[in-house]
């Protein structure tokens, strides 16, 4: 729409893509969103990136699911369904028929094999209320905790380390606090592409003279703004961080008063660090000893320092150890709990923070209350009026697919997740989806996962629904419907409630506000945050100390939420990647996102502008490596790991280290997760999607 005034109404809501949580104004004409503008939310102050600004028209795509679908008798499962024409394999059904069919299918498995034969994947793309209802349905309808979502593949290891050492899995400071910092580390993160609006604050910080230390095996565009760029060897993070901490301890640059007042286990940590002198670690991590020393001195000299990290840190078998190192680095320099200081894992999905807070994880009920705690079970049993809550932590994403293979799990309810694209080693995952006796998929498109389903329930997209979401900054924000869902598609909360009723649960919710009120009774993090307040103010940061308090941007200045109020140092040893390059697979494969595409591409590849900018599956390699292989940019290459093979066009990128391949994972025609390694971090149970041994061969020019 050229004339931005040419619209019927505008509705304030939240961008549906990344965890920054930009507030948007959706301009609507003839019941269609025609234009999007940033408004003055606490995280974005009017700014938007290309996805938030131009990535909205997928909601009008003719692939949208508009009626419930039931698989035709004998129709094969799998990717042979054209999302534009699902009626080759499915028939349309009424809502009553489809919901009865879905509930009966799941109930039959429960009654035949036991409740734990059915598990669930919820979604970080849905609202807090929908995530809460989903985990409640699995826990109370089936009596176990086998419920998870994509946080497992995102920051599960970061949360594991934060809960262990800080007592809380959320950020200790908003990313906007960088305005008050004078030094910052960004490690294993490419925010200019993945958290673009957050990156604008990082760039402004450097313009004011802030010292920005970027650490990544891949040179990203943020390094142009950095005072220090440490391009370490893939998998060299723990050795590099321990070496930096070694220098800080050895040279007496620690904040001893902070350590004495706010931490525990420092002496063990100090002893541990003696084994990591930079001169010994330089070869392992690929960073010269003097650079490690200089970086350590720079960070320690800052008056207020922040540490940001992304999936380059978390998606490793040593992901929890990586985060332990970052937490220790912040603690030893006194950089938690004051303005301009903090630990900030940049959350991926728009509501991955909120979905995790709402209990969509197998070891915790809402607000990270342990399923093993009898008092917690008593509290939730009383509120929910049930007596079947399990005290056994459930299986995680990768473990659930393994359990399908070995016959323990027979069916699933999958809401808004696309494991047939997003999970590691998707050949294994797709075999599991095919093997299930019954699968219910609830989504806005017939995704790769939905193509395996027995029944598909058509859901509303973000611009069509009411509900709250929580961003990476702990800001709970109100999403509002701007347009109606297409044809018979329904909001996810409504579908889950209707399924629950048919599974025998006594649910009477008629609006998301009732769900939010129930969450408020069980989740102290939501104290002072009410539905009406969010309707009036759009956003409140938790914790909010009073009905007037906009919320605490920085937390833990007066102690940590642990038994003794102290944060803990947990030493981390060097654990190599699970699969190292060898003669057969001599290079390193790493995966990630591009600016224009979101995760499995189900939305952005159906967004006209975004797909026009990045229409083709691609990978990037260092020009020197390409020359040595006789490969030109634009050639097709075959990438092969022990799990599979794909062909993809290659680009030259000096930022990618030699003998390394960077592969975005949004493209179904060359799905990166055909190749990735499902080896798990033992604590967070996150897969090592950032490191696999790969063979690269030229196929032909395009
Ligand atoms: Fe949306 Fe994230 Fe871009 Fe903001 S930075 S507009 S939340 S994708």
TrEMBL record:
One of its GO terms (cellular component) is membrane. This is NAD-dependent formate dehydrogenase catalytic subunit /NAD-dependent formate dehydrogenase iron-sulfur protein. Keywords: 4Fe-4S, Iron, Iron-sulfur, Metal-binding, Oxidoreductase, Repeat. GO terms for molecular function: 4 iron, 4 sulfur cluster binding; formate dehydrogenase (NAD+) activity; metal ion binding; molybdopterin cofactor binding; NADH dehydrogenase activity. The keyword Iron-sulfur applies. Residues 8-63 form the 4Fe-4S Mo/W bis-MGD-type domain. One of its GO terms (biological process) is respiratory electron transport chain. It comes from the Bacteria. In the C-terminal section; belongs to the prokaryotic molybdopterin-containing oxidoreductase family. It comes from Aliiroseovarius sediminilitoris.
